Amino acid sequence: MSEPTEPPITHSRIARQLAQVSGTPLGMPTPSDIEVGNARDEIVPEIWRAQALPDFLETWRADDRVKGCLVTEHVVPASEAELREIPAWLDPRLRTALEGRGITQLYSHQAEALEAARSGEHVMLVTPTASGKSLCYNLPALQGLAERPDSRALYVFPTKALTADQYTELHALASTSELGVGVFPFDGDTPQHARQAIRTHGHIVLTNPDMLHSGVLPNHTKWMRLFAGLETIVLDEVHTYRGIFGSHVANVLRRLRRIAAFYGSRPRFVLCSATLRNAKEFAETLLEAPARVIDRSGAPRAEKRIYFYNPPVVNAELGIRASYIHETRRLAERLILCDIPTIVFAASRLNVEVLLKYLHDGLRKHHKPERLVQGYRGGYLPEHRRRIERGLREGEVRGVVSTNALELGIDIGTLEASVIAGYPGTVASFWQQAGRAGRKGGLSATILVARSHPLDQYVVNHPERLLESPPEVARIAPDNLFVLVDHLKCAAYELAFRDGEGFGRVPAEEVKTILDHLVDHEVLHRSEGPDGATYHWMAEAFPAQNVSLRSMPGENFVVIEMPQDRIIAEVDYHATPTMLHEHAITHVDGRQYEVVRLDWDNHKAYVRAVEPDYFTDAMTYVRVEVLDEAEGQTGGAPEGNGVRVAHGEVSVTEKVVGFKKVRFYSHENVGFGEVFLPEQTRHTTSLWWHFSGARLFALPYPPAEILDALSGLGHLLAQIAAVEVWADGRDLAHCVGERTGQWSYRSTAERPPQRGSGPKVTPEIPLPGLDPCLFIYETYPGGVGLSKALFDRARFLMAAARAVVAACPCNAGCPSCIGPPAPLAEHERKKGSSAATRTKTIALEVAMLALALAEAEIASSERLAHAAAS
Amino acid sequence: MSDLRDKLGRFFAGEGAKATTVQGPRGAQIGAASASRIDPRQLERAVARHAQTPLAGATIAATPLEAIGDWRPVETRRGIAWELEERVALGTTAGDARVSEVLAARTERLRDLMGDARLEGFAFDRATYLDIEATGLSHGAGTVACLIGLGRFEADPGGACFVMRQLLVRDPAQEGAALARFVALMHAALDSSPYIVSFNGKSYDLSVLQSRLVMFGFGDPSEVALKLKPHLDLLHLGRALWKGVLDDCRLPTLERAVLKLARIDDVPGSAVPGLFFRFVRTRDARGFEPVLRHNRQDVLSLALLGGRLATLAHGDPIALAAAPEAVVDNLRRLWRRRKMAGGDELCTKRLDRSRPTDV
After folding, report:
1. Number of folded domains in chain B?
2. In this structure, which of A72, A123, B121, B268 has its CB flanked by the most CB atoms within 10 Å?
């Protein structure tokens, strides 16, 4: 054994450390990676003074500690503008208004968009942030109004905050052009008394898909003027309409087009998006019509520097790196103390709150006001959000910590630096978050701080994948049956369906099948008339109310502070079991609250303010059952031979069973608790490897360790799969179980310990005759077609996973590959056996088995085919 | 995949909490719809998620509409509309009010009382009384005006009487015809009955009707211009007088207080949508009859209540004497708010009147 350079590793210290790194799927709230030793050193106050960003970066890069961690510095050079003349046909009042803002020429892409819109084409604009895209749609809309005062325009933004931002800009342009145009935002915050006025006098109405879905479309008779004159519809940030949310929005658009047609209008669409590999296809799927793509930006660009920072390894044997949360905190604190406006993006709400707390603590130690750093996340009430935005604009706030809520182009003042804590899961999100810094020109910097997760490590070790590779693909499945049925109900409520009527590209026969089914369930009534049958809404409920475009079906929960009985936040249905179980420590605005009671039926969580020295992390148990196999690999069933790869429909049941208490700063486990909450079941699609138990457990290792390794392999596979199909890391999850769903594997780290101390953790003994299945499933009901795409590349995925494990420098498994070895393995190691190093080896063998058996299957079926042919 | 159809039993359970096993009348046909690419099992799950529990099939013979009243088909440019006409003699009473009273009501001050110049010249025999029943409280596109009740004073060869007409949507496909008839009736009465009287009609009834007219393509609403007509909404008048005196100012509450009328076995408004859906599905009018009765009573009450409230608000001494003190206080405040002279004397008059009979 070589001389240890670290203090002796004691069992208890490792146990504490390992207990946190539980290999949970990417994106789920996790406590940060382990911090060894240095935590206390960070709290020594240092003197920092205001600095300009270039100087700051010089100093920072030269720092010894930083040097070793900086993996990449990528400079996006400044570029010049490409200009064109303003078209002669533009109304002189608009021209004057532009000149008043110093605009005498247009960027090339703006001119192109203007011409395309005038010719009536649908336009898909794919340009980076801060490229003046607003003019690309504001000018056509205003020009239309200048020529025809009865024309109308509808703008749709993904969030209210973005709507507010664009409204300010459009309103300014409209007023200075003196066209007499009424521009209004219309969303849930619009007061009742203003709504009727907006409906009648709003020439351009700004809204969001949710309001369109549940407010505007179901009340379309009140919007008659708008629909009858509708010429232009603008959809901004459409790349956010991916996955299941996008599938919903695609259907809302189908309803919108249907209603516009009812009033006799055929509006043209202007779509704006971040870069996508399949921009044209995506636009045409959303619109169900051809679109012209404009993707070369003529806007000038200031220099941008991008850094990839990989926290230092503090324990080579176990492959443990310093906590990325602490690294982020240190960097953000330095930036803020140097008076550089900074935004910090964290992958989950929990991490936002933890970082916020650490930053506030740091500010206090430097005798600076806490208000310099604010948190920003979707669950906050609107007034709170507006206050933060104002603080940034006026300079009272210098730092913001956020989930992705701000990554959409909101004008909140010049931010010069963005620190991204953990790869956000998609290339588009990364660039959006990077783009938040430097909107007003001048040098800006983005620093990505990597986590130990396989995906992050992959990205920082292959920076070209993020920086230079082609952008990702946006996928939607507008015909996902769960989504389609919901929207057909809404559409029937809005306008009765006639026999022979289709819905978007859904053919009439399919629409009829679904409508007839709804008649059977007494949701619709079918009337026979002289011109054929019509289907009418005949139920009391208001369908759009029960259909949420964003979260999985179910209503939000409200968080109520006791004893004041005051609502302080909202949490969506899906996040509630992990965030609001009883005794959870939940964070709102940097303050901690303990959940005293969760009223599941009434969707309320009662909390009281506390000041604990720990936070909580929920433990979830997942079971998967195969419902229907769509396609399987050719070859025999596993009963003889080996492994079968297939994809199809599954039922996923999730249950939060307990939680861990994790101390701040040291991140040690200081307790466990049980949680009693109902199971949540949903049906979705999945890819799976179905192993023959006989072959799998024939490997020369204890079955428990084999399962452990299989689970680690699944963890890695899910990450690689996400990259492979350009999905968000949260769109996929893994589970080791078996086909009937009666059993599923839980790693020892995920299970509460037995009574009493010591490593008496009993391993999970599989049932005899068990044929384990490794599932990689989609996290949304119905899925969006990822499973099929993954099935087609299954062999590649397994081979890639095997390669990552083989190449990983750790000894026994680490967060960067299959996850850390289980505490049991550590116990074995103390005894001197070689068990500790086995998990990785086993994982390799399992992967080889899967690959070899797959090869064998194909070879044997080829031989059979060959024999049959000859 | 076809071999898996044998496992149908498990797949027909609904998703999530509600597991309804549904074998609808088209159950057998689901499997046969193989030409479509929709997986019937998935479809079942998707539909069952938010569906309601279906009503038990009606096995009793349905009573047709014609059997419960003199419902007549009327030709319109949108098809057949179904109408019931009831002529109410002036001597008819409800509670302690008589229909003939309404014609004697004092209306000269209504314009000032309501602060609405369009009510100039208002008279109860020049008004259309309007009350609808609809399938929901929301004014959304899916809310159907299933029953429209209209009342008017008309001159008969035998004398004047109060004529009530109801237009019923027997099937959603016939709603256009009912609306066409409604528009025709309103148009015909443009000169004789230009005023509208309703209870909360300004917010509800007219909004729903407007919405339905747009849905059925009756042109720009300004053509029919319901909301532009002079409108006396009794909810506002009732509230102005009775606020703080009664538990609430809903129509049945005011009926009891002002007309001494208590309805027996009246159907609550919330039950109307369900009863209408059942009527459409089963065609059994007997279940819907209470709603028809309720609507007719509503229309009649509009006239009776209107007359009494107007007379009281006018400052009629007899009406004042019969009214509670608090109501007179409210009235005084209303007169003051509307800058009407003589409000303070209202109190005095009442005291004068009541003193000799005070016990």
Report:
1. 3
2. A123
Mean pLDDT to the nearest integer, A264-288: 92
What contacts A154, CB < 8 A, 6 or more positions away? A204, A205, A207, A226, A230, A232, A233, A234, A267
Mutant choice from A522, A534, A626 vs B, greatest count of B C-beta within 10 A: A522
Residues A541 and A561 in one domain: no
Which of the four pLDDT bands, split at 50, 70 and 90, describes residue A839?
Answer: confident
| In contact, A728 and A426? CB cutoff 8 Å | yes
Q: Look at residue B60 and tell me if it is in a domain.
A: no
* pLDDT given for residue A568 in this prediction: 84
Give residues 69 to 128 of B whose Cβ lies within 8 Å of A: none
Looking at residue A140, its pLDDT comes to 92
Give the residue among B206, B214, B216, B224 at the shortest CA–CA distance from B77.
Answer: B216
**Residue in A590, A594, A599, A596 with CA at minimum distance from that of residue A558:** A599
A contact test, residue of B26, B38, B49, B208 with most A CBs within 10 A? B38
Average pLDDT of the segment spanning A527-537: 86
Please report how many Cα atoms fall inside a 13 Å half-sphere around the Cα of residue A525, on the Cβ side: 23
Domain that holds residue A527: 481-546
Residue A174, domain member (yes or no): yes
* Residue that has been written with the tokens 């082609």 in this structure: A470
Both A608 and A620 in one domain: the answer is no
In a domain, B53, yes or no: no
Q: Does A540 touch chain B (CB under 8 A)?
A: yes
**Residue A25: inside a domain:** no
Give the Cα separation of A473 and A475 in Å (integer).
6
* B34 or A595, higher pLDDT: A595
**ipTM score here?**
0.79
The verdict on A272 and A381 lying in the same domain is no
Q: Is the pLDDT of residue A462 over 70?
A: yes
The answer as to whether A758 is a domain residue is no
> Model-level pTM?
0.73
Q: Are A340 and A444 in contact (CB under 8 A)?
A: no
Is A843 within 8 Å of A711 (Cβ atoms)? no
Q: Which domain holds residue B338?
A: 318-354
Place of tokens 């007899």: B318
d(CA A220, CA B136) in angstroms, rounded, equals: 16
User: What's residue A780's pLDDT?
Assistant: 73
Q: Does A518 contact B at CB distance below 8 Å?
A: yes
- pLDDT higher for A50 or B147? B147
Predicted confidence at residue A48, as pLDDT, reads: 65
Which residues, numbered 294 to 353 in chain B, qualify as contacts with chain A under a Cβ-Cβ cut-off of 8 Å? none
